[in-house]
Structure formats: structure tokens, C-alpha cells
Write a structure and sequence with these properties.
The chain is of the alpha+beta class. About 20% of the residues lie in helices and about 40% in strands. It folds into 3 domains: about 80 residues; about 120 residues, Immunoglobulin-like, CATH 2.60.40; about 100 residues, Immunoglobulin-like (Sandwich). Helix 1 runs antiparallel to helix 2. Keywords: Bacterial flagellum biogenesis.
């Protein structure tokens, strides 16, 4: 099982300290050289002056060494700045539940969702969980569908006996019709408790595991930190999805509306109202459970185009028994700031101000780090 050796930022600090010591030593040597040179010049025979070539060569060498030390110092400064920038991104994950690509997971007494992707449909598929000594502690049949699947491990042995908290590894063993093993990858979940650096690379800590930022698939705010200003700061620069029924139409650009149904509906519709509560647009919506999309181009049911302004969208759905289906509307955007309103933390997304507690999930943009 893979292990990690934590290394702090002292490595960068030590390099900077060594550069500073080299600069001081060079200055001392150069001062001694100038003192010696001045003394020799003062005491030389005017009728037989010394050859200045050697002194000139030594001056050139001192200059070259000084330039090299200055270059090293600037490189140390660049590394420190880059490390600080990446660390600020990593700090945003602290306290959040993340999904990350890994075969290892940290069990803390709570169920762990294990996502895995199969390149093709399997005939048989099992999830196998191993302890730190590579002993098989849990095995069960899992979905065999091609694509992404999910299974939840409750932290027990195959016989139902509870296991202690700690680090475990997971493996999906899947076989196709030809009896060949199917390649797959696993994504596990955990809560970030801190960050550290290893050889100048920033990692987030999940339990005792150090996770590379590049392995993080997405991050979800926990119920305990969604409303705090410090948690909201962690969203700055990240791409988020957030729950809201409010939308702003600029009069020209279509708006993509994302919505989800908790169960299959027999009847469903997307209704858009103006700020006075007047229905301006209605259209059939998907009746399938899960996430769906709809694009509103500002059209009005009465004809023409609705004017620019604030609107409200509602997805209204019922079952065949005429019972209401729970629905959620949400949008995507990149957080560019944080503000406080009446003691409640909000994030700014373009010209919108969204409560931090309404954020459903967040992930770093592909251009970050």
C-alpha cells in the first residue's frame, strides 16, 4: 500500500536561507579582497608596478558569482510565489468533502461512496476492500453496467462486522464475456482536514492520505461550513453549481436552465414568471428523474420576446397519482468574489449575489494550477 512522507514548506525556506548566507559570504570575501588589493596598491613600487591582469580576472570572477547568487535568489522568490498561489487554492478545499481519483480511501466511521467506471459491460463485477496489510476484508457484487457506477461501503467486513477507522484500498474486479479483466478506475470521497507540501508540490490531506490537487474531481461544501465567510472565500475562482429559481435575462443571450426531478413524472412543465409574478412563458419539461436541461431564449408564450430583467423559473411536475414531484433548479458559474449581507456570506458570480449555502458542488477550473 502506498505511503507518503509529509514534507513542510521548510524546504523552500531553507533554500532561501542558503542563498542569503551565500550572498553574505560573498560580500565578506569581496570586502577582504578589496582591502588586500588596496593595501598592495598602496605599497607597490611605483617604478615596478604590479600586473593588474590578475586583479581584473578576480574582479570578473566575483561579479560572475554575485550574478549567479542573485539569479538563485530570484528563482527562490519565484518558487515561493508559485507555492503560495497553489497553497491558496488548496486552502479552499479545507473542510470540504471531495471526490478524488484513488484506489485508497480513508474510513472515519461514516459510509464511503465509491465511484468506478467500466469501459464495457461486465459479466461479473465485484468490489474488494483491503486493509493496510493487504488482507481482503470486504467483497460484494456490484453493478456491471458500462460507464460510471457507484457503490457505498459502510465500513464493515463481508460478514457485517464493523471495522476500525483507518486507511483501506479498494479494487473493482470485473470480467467481460470473453473472460478478460475490464480496465477501470475508482473515485472515492473524503473530507479535507488540511494541506501540506511534498518536494514543492501542494497536497490536501484526507485523513492520513496526501491527495494531489490534480486528482480531485469535485468538491462539496459540508453543512457545517456552507454559511461561513471563511468557507465562502474557498469558492473564489472555482466553478460551482448553485440552487436558485431566480434568473436574469439580458434581452439577448439565451439562458441554460438546469433542473432535476426526484422521481419520474407523468406531467411536467417549465414556467417562467416576471418580477410581478405574471406567467410569461411555459413549455413542457422532461418527465425523467435526474438532471435535465432547458434553454430559454427569452421567448414569451404570448409571442415576441420578453424584455431584459429579473425572472423566476419553476419546474412543476406531478405523478400519475397527481402527487407533486420534488424538483430543483440550479445554474453554473465561476465565483469571483465574496460579500457579507446581514451576517450571511454570499458569493458573487458575474452580476449575481448567491448565498454560499446554496452552492451544491464546486470544482477547480481546468486552467487552475
Amino acid at each position: 500500500m502506498a505511503t507518503t512522507n509529509p514534507v513542510t514548506t521548510s524546504g523552500v525556506a531553507n533554500n532561501a536561507a542558503k542563498t542569503g548566507q551565500s550572498t553574505v559570504k560573498l560580500a565578506e570575501d569581496f570586502q577582504q579582497f578589496l582591502t588586500l588589493l588596496t593595501t598592495q596598491l598602496q605599497n607597490q613600487d611605483p617604478l615596478s608596478p604590479m600586473d593588474s591582469t590578475e586583479f581584473t580576472n578576480q574582479l570578473v570572477q566575483f561579479s560572475q558569482v554575485e550574478q549567479q547568487i542573485n539569479m538563485n535568489q530570484k528563482m527562490d522568490n519565484l518558487v515561493s510565489l508559485q507555492l503560495a498561489s497553489i497553497s491558496s487554492v488548496a486552502l479552499g478545499y479545507v473542510g470540504m468533502d471531495i471526490s478524488y481519483v484513488s484506489a485508497e480511501m480513508n474510513y472515519e466511521g461514516k459510509p464511503i461512496d465509491i465511484n468506478y467506471a467500466l469501459s464495457e459491460e461486465a459479466v461479473t463485477a465485484k468490489v474488494n476492500v483491503y486493509d493496510q496489510n493487504d488482507n481482503l476484508v470486504y467483497s460484494a457484487d456490484v453493478p456491471k453496467n458500462a460507464g460510471t457506477n457507484q457503490v457505498t461501503w459502510n465500513g464493515t467486513k463481508t460478514n457485517g462486522e464493523a471495522l476500525p477507522a483507518g486507511t483501506y484500498s479498494v479494487k473493482i474486479d470485473a470480467v467481460n464475456k470473453a473472460g478478460t479483466a475490464i480496465e477501470n478506475s475508482t473515485v472515492v470521497t473524503g473530507r479535507v482536514r488540511g494541506i501540506e507540501t511534498q518536494n514543492g508540490i501542494v497536497y490536501v490531506l484526507v485523513g492520513e492520505r496526501a491527495i494531489a490537487l490534480s486528482s480531485i474531481v469535485n468538491a462539496n461544501a459540508t453543512t457545517s461550513n456552507t454559511g461561513s465567510a471563511s468557507a465562502a472565500l474557498g469558492y473564489v475562482g472555482m466553478d460551482v453549481s448553485y440552487e436558485t429559481s431566480d434568473l436574469k435575462f439580458d434581452g439577448t443571450n439565451p439562458i441554460e436552465i438546469n433542473y432535476s426531478l426526484e422521481e419520474k413524472a407523468a406531467n411536467s412543465a417549465i414556467n417562467i414568471y416576471d418580477k410581478n409574478g405574471v406567467l410569461v412563458y411555459t413549455a413542457p419539461a422532461s418527465q425523467m428523474p435526474g438532471t435535465n436541461k432547458f434553454t430559454w431564449n427569452g421567448a414569451s408564450t404570448k409571442g415576441g420576446t420578453a424584455g431584459a430583467g429579473d425572472y423566476t423559473v419553476k419546474v412543476e411536475a406531478t405523478t400519475s397519482e397527481n402527487k407533486n414531484v420534488n424538483t430543483t433548479t440550479f445554474f453554473y458559474g465561476r465565483v469571483d468574489g465574496v460579500e457579507n449581507k446581514g451576517g450571511i456570506a454570499y458569493v458573487t458570480i458575474g452580476d449575481k449575489s448567491v448565498p454560499a449555502s446554496s452552492i451544491l458542488n464546486a470544482k477547480k477550473p481546468t486552467t487552475t494550477v
